[in-house]
Every structure is written in structure tokens, then in C-alpha cells.
Design brief:
Elements: H1 9-18, H2 25-38, H3 52-63, H4 68-75, H5 79-82, H6 87-94, H7 96-105, H8 116-133, H9 136-150, H10 157-177, H11 181-195, H12 197-209, H13 211-232, E1 239-244, H14 247-256, E2 268-274, H15 277-290, E3 292-300, E4 313-318, E5 324-331, H16 332-340, H17 344-349, H18 357-362, H19 364-374, H20 381-391, E6 394-398, E7 404-408, H21 413-420, H22 422-426, E8 428-433, E9 436-438, E10 450-454, H23 466-469, H24 473-486, H25 488-505, H26 512-525, H27 531-540, H28 545-563, E11 581-583, E12 591-593, E13 605-609, E14 615-619, E15 638-643, E16 651-660, H29 665-675, E17 679-687, E18 692-701, H30 704-715, E19 720-726
Parallel strand pairs: 2-5, 12-14
Antiparallel strand pairs: 1-2, 3-4, 4-5, 6-7, 8-9, 8-10, 11-15, 13-14, 13-15, 16-18, 16-19, 17-18
Helix pairs in contact: 2-4, 3-4, 3-9, 4-7, 4-9, 6-7, 7-8, 7-9, 9-10, 9-11, 10-11, 10-20, 11-12, 11-14, 12-14, 13-15, 19-20, 19-24, 21-24, 24-27, 25-27
Length: 728
């Protein structure tokens, strides 16, 4: 998938004719022409014509073996979003099928959202819903992201990091769940290339320096294997392949697990592809006769397929030359599924049928994620659900009847019970693991036989504590759904009590009339028909107080401030003030640098005359500063200000460092700070999802330029994704 890019219609048609599929070339050419016409005059970051991008998304789709409708939709996937062409026009020209695919891929960038995370969450929700209707939507979207990642170098550095992180957290895991291995691995490798270029280069160099030696040894091993198999199984067809582990796969083991390159046994692998499952196990026996198998390094994914339906036998062995390598054994059908995943249905089966049980199993996670959203009023939770549910590795537990249940690592018996059935989860009173009673928060290990103990007692249900014990969003959503349906009076009481406690905690003590006004306003903002529904949502966990209280607090104290009489300050002739800031017309007044934007020398600033606290200095582009002062509620309280360049004061600034969680990371950060002779005021680190971490540091610096220099040095630390200045 790294061939030269397509740049005109003739190249695309030649590619289509080289395939064995029966494409509707006339309609594809029509889509090509509309793509060129619609995007005429538009340029990409690479400064090339924009339509080059959809051409090459279509090329990736062809390489995956997709059908004519998918190719047309790939060519038109940005037309609705970026041009005047409408979905209705596409449906009229190309039919309803293509229009639905284009609409599913189109982002909802024309709508208004309060935060970037909320917009991303809504984009993902729309995409998942469209996937539920037609899985080709996400295949086109993956191809779109893959080509964008291939050309990411042309974008600004902060955009490169942003896209790379999103690719690792969302798109690569989706490709993995759909079993499209080449796309998944290339997305991961390209993301690491932009997030940690030094480590990426180091791994590439290690692979290159040992390439010739390893290739020679593997060729000899492959020849030996082929001779044995032809002798022992003369009437069976075989195919052989060599495989080198992806850069991202090596990166995870070297930099996240702390292994040396020589300790990674599956860097190199040999694939043996044959006809039947029985042949696979016979080949496995022969391999263990020829080579010495390494204990505990055998995995049977044929008997227990991965959630994305991947099947293969994996065994790690040592040759007589001392070379450690992996052997993968699978059937031809399994190989097609492993390489093309869900797309194999089009490449090898001419589409899919509605009663395909394997397809239904593979897409069950989409339904589970959307079901989890039904019980939550917080749209941004979808983004977290995607990151948590898709990024984790899986474990396999067994029911007493012998059924294998796949769960994320860290899952408890609560997750297992609700994975079996909602009724099993709500009636659970205990659990056994391998025949022994275990607590509700017992973390399941692969291979354990889990038995859920239930009761038929009327009115029995889950405990609210289970919300913090459950790992999967499926279990959490079913617990929320039960409380929402069965415990409304209790939810209202619980929610009201929690809301009242939070009001008191943030210092809001109001009359009953004011209290009702606050609750009514908040309930209306979050689209609840009445106050009881709002309290009930808090009670069953559908809305989180931690997310709504900051705005309630800010709105309340703004109203309190606004209710006080304003004293207009008579401003004399221009004089200088103290503290490194010059405020137009006010001498020796109290100057306070606002914490919401933490301005530094070099930032364009403006002052706000507060009541009793002097002048608060903000960055001019701060979210709390009106764009047009003359149209603000109190224009006379905004006053011109600039930095006193004659003074060299120290100012505090807060930085957020996003990085891979690794040993000695804090030491490396402290070394940079020490070498630059910077004063460190505070440091706080916490783990994030997917083996990452967030580190918040508050430092003293002299200006914006000084801060930029500090950020540049911190970004060069191995494993660091991004360093951003944030409000204090």
C-alpha cells in the first residue's frame, strides 16, 4: 500500500482493469469527473490540487478489493463537506447507495459545538451509526485517514501530533477490530513516526542493519521447512511467507515494556498457509519435531479466535543456529481474513448477506458502544468509550458450559455477568472463579472458568458501587439503564442530595426561590423536561456533576458580580503602573495576571477593572475577553494595557506534557529544566489510557519567546507527544 500516487483518470482506470473484479468503470469515471470539477481550485497542505487526495483514497479502496459503490464514494467523500455539491445531487447522479456512503463519511463540521472534544465525539457517533447500516463507511474513512497520514509531513507540527494521537487512539483500533491488518499497522507506524521520530528512526535502523543476515537465515529455515513438509505431507498444498513485525509493535515492546531488541522473539516470522484446519495442526506437530519450541509461547487462535475473527496458530521456536523466530500456521481462508478483515467479504465473497453470523459477531462492538450511549446524556462520553473499549487487549474467560467470552484486560466478574446477559448481571449475588468463591471486584485472568451466582428474589438489582468496579462500558450502561428504569424515586432523591452537596462545596448558598431558578435553568440547558428528570439522571449516572458544576459556579458568580453597582473610574492622562505591565491612565494600581489564560510578556494583552481587586490582565484572545469590546455588556471596564519592556520580571506559566508512560521520564524532564536554569514551582503526573501519561508543570519564565524555547526543549524528550501551554 505504498505505491506511487494516482494523479489522473487513466491511471485509475488502468488500476481497475488490472483487478479481477467486475467494476462499473463508466460510473466510476463519472464520479472522478465530478470530484475534479467540485474540488477545482482547492489546494491541500502539500500545495497540490485537492482532488489528488480522493483519487488516492479510491486507490486504497481498490487495493482492499472493495466494490464500485465504495470506489465512487471514496472519490466523492469530501465533496459534500468542502464544496457546494449536496447529498441530494449525489443521490440523483449516482444512486441512494453511494449517497448513503458519502453521507456516512462526511463530518458534521458545519454544526456548532461547545468544545472540540464534543465535535469529535459527534463525528464518531455519526460514523458508528452509519457503520451499523453499512460497514463500508468506516472502510472508506480508514482509507481517508491512511492517505492523510501518508502526507502528514506537510501539516504544522501541532496538527501532526494531534492527528497522530487520534489515529493511535481511534482509527488504528477500529482497523484492528475489523481485522484489516495492513491498514492498522501502517496507521500505527505513521503515527509513531510523527509522535516519536527518534525512536522510530532507531527501530528502522535496527531492522535495516540486521536485515541481510536475518533474511539469509530465514531463507535457509524456510527451505528446510518446505523440504520436511513436502516429504511428510506430499499431497497437501502449501504457501510460505516471511513477515517482519511492524515498527509500532516493536516500539511497544522496546519502549513501553522495556525490552531489548534481541529479547523480542517475534520480530521475524514465517507463515505457512495450507488447505484445512487438520493440516494446520499436523504442520504444527512437524514444526515442533524440527525446532525446539519455547515454553509458554504457543497460542491457538484457531480454537479461540480473536474478537476480530483472526485465526491462526502461533508458536515461537529456536533453530539449530540459535535464531528465535515465530511460525504462524493458517488456512488460505484464514489468511484472506487476516489480511483484508471485513473487506474480504467483498474481495472473495462478492459482498455480504444479512444473515452472516460471523459478520454480526465481528460488528457486535459497534452496537455495544451505541447502546452504552443510550443511557448517558453526556455526548463526550462516546469518545472516551471508543478509546477505552477499542484500545485494550483482550482476555478470554470460560463459562461453565464451555463458551469462551472475550473481555478487555482488567475486566471483573461484573463485566462478565453483564456480557452474558443483562438479567444475569442484575440478578448476580456472587461469583466463582475455577470453582472458588471470589469477590465482585475479582479481575478475570485468561482461561478462568467463571460461574455467576444469581437470585430470583423479587426486587433484587445491582449495587451503585458496581459502576466503579465495572471496566466495560457495556456493563456500566446496563447498570445505569437498570437504575433508570427500576429506581426512579431513589434516583431523584440520590441526585438531589448529590447536587445540593456540590452546591455547598463550591460555596453557593441561596434561597429556595434562587435554588429553583438555578435547577430549572440547568435542567433546561441539558434538555430535561423537568427538575425531577434532571435529578434522576444524576442519580443513575447519566450525567456527571463533575462536568456540569464548573459552569454552574461560573454562571452564578457572574450574576452576583453583575448585580453589584458599577463605579466608573475617571481615567486621567496616560501613566505607567507597576508589575511589568503598563495600564493606560492608571498609576500604581493593583495588577493581577488572570489565571484563565496566564499571559506572558510578548502576548497581546488587555485590562479589566474589577471591583475591589485592581486590574485583571488577560490575553487579547482569551475566551473571557469579548471580540468586540464596544458591544460587550460593560465596555468602560475594559482598558488598554501593554508590557513594560524595561522591566524583566519573572512570570509563572503552566504546561501540559503528553507522553508515553516510561521509566525515567520525570528525570529527563527535570534535567531539561535544570539545564535551562528554570525555576520549577510544581509538578503533577498522572497515568492516561493506552500506556500514556499527562504531566502538569508550573514554571517561571521571562517572556513568550523564553517559554517557546522551553517547550521546544521539552518536546525533544523521547516519548513526548506534545507540550502545550494551558491556563493555571
Amino acid at each position: 500500500m505504498t505505491e506511487n500516487e494516482i494523479r489522473d483518470k487513466n491511471e485509475l482506470v488502468a488500476l481497475l482493469l488490472s483487478q479481477k473484479s467486475n467494476y462499473d468503470i463508466k460510473m466510476i469515471e463519472k464520479a472522478y469527473d465530478l470530484c475534479v470539477k467540485s474540488h477545482s481550485g482547492q489546494k491541500r497542505f502539500t500545495n497540490e490540487d485537492y482532488y489528488i487526495h480522493p483519487f488516492n483514497v479510491a486507490k486504497i479502496i481498490v487495493g482492499m478489493g472493495m466494490d464500485s459503490a465504495s470506489i465512487m464514494a471514496a472519490l466523492l467523500h469530501d465533496v459534500v463537506e468542502d464544496t457546494d455539491t449536496t447529498i441530494e445531487e449525489i443521490e440523483k447522479m449516482f444512486g441512494k447507495e453511494v449517497a448513503l456512503l458519502v453521507d456516512g463519511v462526511t463530518k458534521i463540521g458545519r454544526l456548532s459545538f461547545s468544545t472540540k472534544e464534543q465535535q469529535q465525539a459527534e463525528n464518531l457517533r455519526k460514523m458508528l451509526i452509519a457503520m451499523g447500516k453499512d460497514i463500508r463507511v468506516i472502510i472508506i474513512k480508514l482509507a481517508d485517514r491512511l492517505h492523510n497520514m501518508r502526507t502528514l509531513d506537510a501539516m504544522p507540527d501541532y496538527k501532526q501530533r494531534e492527528k497522530a494521537v487520534e489515529t493511535l487512539e481511534v482509527f488504528a483500533p477500529i482497523a484492528h477490530r475489523l481485522g484489516i491488518r495492513p491498514v492498522k499497522e501502517e496507521l500505527e507506524d505513521l503515527a509513531i513516526k510523527h509522535l516519536d521520530p527518534i525512536a522510530y528512526s532507531e527501530i528502522e535502523q535496527l531492522l535495516q542493519t540486521r536485515k541481510q543476515q536475518r533474511e539469509q537465515i530465514l531463507d535457509d529455515v524456510k527451505q528446510k521447512i518446505e523440504e520436511y513438509l513436502r516429504k511428510e505431507m506430499p499431497n497437501v498444498d502449501f504457501a510460505f511467507q516471511g513477515r517482519v513485525k511492524s515498527v509500532h509493535g516493536i516500539y511497544r515492546k522496546m519502549f513501553l515494556q522495556g525490552k531489548d531488541f534481541d529479547e523480542i522473539y517475534d520480530v521475524y516470522a514465517i507463515r505457512i498457509i495450507t488447505d484445512t484446519v487438520a493440516d494446520c495442526y499436523n504442520v504444527l506437530g512437524i514444526m515442533h519435531d524440527i525446532f525446539q519450541p519455547i515454553p509458554n509461547r504457543f497460542k491457538d487462535y484457531i480454537a479461540t479466535p480473536k474478537p476480530n475473527m483472526y485465526q491462526s496458530l502461533h508458536t515461537t521456536v529456536i533453530s539449530r543456529d540459535g535464531l528465535t523466530f515465530e511460525i504462524q500456521i493458517r488456512t488460505f481462508d484464514m489468511h484472506h481474513t487476516a489480511e483484508f478483515g471485513i473487506a474480504a467479504h467483498w474481495k472473495y465473497k462478492e459482498g455480504i448477506s444479512s444473515n452472516d453470523d460471523k459478520l454480526e459477531n465481528r460488528l457486535a462492538w459497534i452496537r455495544q458502544i451505541l447502546e452504552a450511549q443510550d443511557t448517558s446524556e453526556d455526548s463526550s462520553e462516546l469518545l472516551q468509550t471508543i478509546k477505552v473499549d477499542l484500545s485494550q487487549e483482550d482476555i478470554f474467560a470460560v463459562t461453565p458450559n464451555g463458551d469462551v467470552i472475550s473481555l478487555p484486560v482488567g475486566s471483573t466478574v461484573v463485566d462478565f455477568a453483564f456480557m452474558i446477559h443483562s438479567a444475569v448481571g442484575t440478578r448476580m449475588v456472587g461469583a466463582k472463579a475455577d470453582g472458588k468463591i471470589v469477590p465482585i471486584n475479582h479481575e478475570i485472568k485468561t482461561g478462568e472458568v467463571i460461574e455467576i451466582l444469581t437470585t430470583n428474589q423479587a426486587g433484587h438489582g445491582p449495587s451503585r458501587d458496581w459502576m466503579s468496579i465495572a471496566v466495560t462500558n457495556q456493563a456500566k450502561s446496563k447498570i445505569r439503564a437498570w437504575f433508570k428504569k427500576e429506581r426512579r424515586p431513589e434516583n431523584i432523591e440520590e441526585g438531589k442530595d448529590s447536587f445540593d452537596k456540590e452546591l455547598r462545596r463550591i460555596g453557593i448558598n441561596v434561597s429556595e426561590e434562587e435554588y429553583e431558578a438555578i435547577v430549572g435553568e440547568v435542567a433546561k440547558r441539558y434538555h430535561f423536561p423537568n427538575n425531577d428528570d434532571f435529578f434522576a439522571a444524576i442519580g443513575y449516572g447519566g450525567i456527571l456533576l463533575s462536568k456540569i458544576m464548573p459552569r454552574i459556579r461560573d454562571d452564578y458568580f457572574k450574576k452576583v458580580q453583575a448585580s453589584k453597582p458599577i463605579q466608573v473610574v475617571e481615567i486621567p492622562e496616560k501613566q505607567s503602573s507597576t508589575g511589568g505591565v503598563v495600564v493606560e491612565g492608571i498609576d500604581n494600581c493593583l495588577i493581577k495576571l488572570s489565571k484563565c489564560c496566564a499571559p506572558l510578556p510578548g502576548d497581546e494583552i488587555i485590562g479589566f477593572i474589577t471591583r475591589g481587586h485592581g486590574v485583571s490582565i488577560h490575553k487579547r484572545d482569551c475566551t473571557n475577553v469579548p471580540k468586540d469590546i464596544s458591544k460587550s455588556e460593560e465596555p468602560k471596564r475594559w482598558i488598554s494595557a501593554h508590557w513594560n519592556t524595561k522591566k524583566t520580571n519573572k512570570f509563572t506559566s503552566t504546561l501540559q506534557i503528553d507522553s508515553i508512560d516510561r521509566d525515567n521520564l520525570i528525570v529527563d524532564i527535570m534535567n531539561v529544566i535544570s539545564n535551562m536554569r528554570i525555576s520549577l514551582n510544581s509538578i503533577n503526573a498522572k497515568q492516561a489510557k493506552g500506556g500514556n501519561c499527562k504531566i502538569i508543570i508550573t514554571i517561571s519564565c521571562e517572556s513568550v519567546e523564553h517559554l517557546k524555547s522551553i517547550i521546544n526543549h521539552l518536546e525533544k524528550i523521547s516519548g513526548v507527544f506534545s507540550v502545550e501551554r494551558i491556563g493555571q
